[in-house]
Amino acid sequence: MAGFRTDDSNEVMSEINMVPFIDVMLVLLIVFIVTVPMMKHAVSVDLPRASSEKELIKPETLRLSVQADGGYLLGDAPVADAALPGLLQAEAAKTPQPDLHIQGDKAVRYERVAQLLAMAQQAGLRKVGFVTEPARAP
Question: Residues 31-43: pLDDT tens digits?
């Protein structure tokens, strides 16, 4: 036994027993952990009401078709190759910017569609999509 000596001297033990101190500290820690979240320091302020719904502004759609012979149609009107970059730049300057939907004929050369994509990119159009027909089930 650590506290007793073999000789029978009645000396006072000078070591402090830490177990009760640790128990008290653990109880206090648990009390603070439980009570701190319950203390709520809130100031009552009458705030104005506002709608959190985003205002939905649908941009117009610019439909550009590439015919089988390589000609371009803006909507239903034919467009010359030289006039197309200017039209695309004018559309790109609008706010909100319109969506460009490209309809390519099945028989057209890919080169004409690639030229159209390059013109749209140079004009600054960011939203470009391709229009296709769904495959028919046999």
Answer: 988 887 777 766 6
Q: What is the pLDDT of residues 63-87, one digit of tens each?
A: 999 999 999 999 889 999 999 999 9
- pTM, full prediction: 0.56
Set out the domains of the chain in order of their start, with CATH numbers: 61-130 (3.30.420.270)
Residue-by-residue DSSP string for the chain = --S--SS---PPP-----HHHHHHHHHHHHHHHHHTTT--------PPP---SPP--PPPEEEEEE-TTS-EEETTEEE-TTTHHHHHHHHHTSSSPPEEEEEE-TTS-HHHHHHHHHHHHHHT---EEE--PPPPP-
